[in-house]
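Its record is retained below.
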Amino acid sequence: MCSSDLVIEGADEVKVATADGREFQCSILLRDKSIDLAVLKLNTNERFPTLPLGNSDDLEVGDLVLAIGNPFGVGQTVTSGIVSALARTRIGASDLDFFIQTDASINPGNSGGALIDMRGKLVGINSAIYSRSGGSVGIGFAIPSNMVQAVLETVKRGGKRFERPYVGASFQPVTQQVADSLGLDRARGALVNSIAGGSPADRAGLKVGDVVLSVDGVSVEDADALNYRLATAGIGHDAKLDVLRKGKKLSVGIALERAPETVAPDEHVIGGQSPLTGARVANLSPRNAGDFGLPTDSAGVVVTAVTSNSPAEQVGFQVGDIIRAVNGRDIKSTSDLDAAVNAQPSYWRLAVERGGQIIQQIIR
C-alpha cells in the first residue's frame, strides 16, 4: 500500500488499522520525502481486497471523485467532490509540482488516503490542503496515480527510494517574450538552457535554445510538466520529445537513464570542535543531487543530515545546504572540507549556498 511519507515521518514503528478495528505491523519498503510518498508492506499472510490503479491522465476538470481518510482521527470517512484543477504546481507540499486539486473535503488525517474516481479506481493519494484555519476550505491536493505507479515500479525493482530519470539537461519556463521570438502562439513548453556533455540529452541531439513541446505525444505546458512526464515514464525507457528548433518542429528520441555517480559520495559526519560538528556531508553528483531538490549539475559538498543539539544545528545548517567556502578556502570535495575543519582556526568564516543564494557567516 502507498501512503503519504509525512504520515510516517519520524515514526519508530508503523501500524495500519483497518475499519474493523484490527491493527497490523508494517515494514517500510520505500519512503521519499521529495514526492511525499511511502510504500508499506503489511506483515501478515492475510489477503486483502485492493483498489485497481486508474490512469490519472484520463481525469478532467469537473469529474466526480471520492476522498477516503481518517480526518482528525474520528475514523474512516468518505467525502465527495470534483476535480477542481489538474497539474497544480508550486504549492509547497513536496518537490512533485504536479498535483490534482479537488474540493472533496480533505482534513488533517486524510493524508495518505485514496482519491477514487466513479469507476472505483485509485486516481490519486491525498497529500495536502490549502487552509488558513487548519480545516478544509475545499482546496485539497492529491498525488496523481501515475506517479504512484512509477513509485511502485521502483519497489518491484528492489529500489529503496524513487529516482527520477536523468537526461542531463536543465529546463526553464518559456516567457511570453521568448514565445513571441520563436513564433509560438502562446507561452508554453520547456526551454533547454544547458546540456551536460555525453549525457542522454547530448547524445539525442538536443540543443540549448530548443523548446520541448510534448513527451510521447502528451503536451507539456512548462518545465514542471516536462519533469513530471519524464519521471512517470521511468528509468530504462525511451521517450519521444517533440521539439521546436529555430521555428521548425522535429522529434527527438531520448534514453531515460539512471543518474551517474561521477564522484564517490564519501558520506560521513563531521567530528571535532567546529561550527560544522554534527553535520553529515557528502560529495554531490547527478545521482544524489535530486535527493535534496538540487539541479543534477550541482557540484560540491552537501549537508545530508544534521545531528540534534549539535553545533551544526545551533549554527543553523540545514539539509540541502551546499558548503562553498570555509575561511576563504573553496570547498569542492569532502576532503577539502575535512582539511579546512582540521585546521582549527581562531574564528570561522563560512559561505553556504541555500536556495541558490550564498549566505555568509562569521563565527568566533
Remarks:
- DSSP finds seven helices and 23 strands in the chain.
- The helical segments are 145-156, 176-182, 200-204, 223-233, 286-289, 311-315, 334-342.
- Residues 145-156 form the longest helix (12 residues).
- The chain has a mean pLDDT of 89.
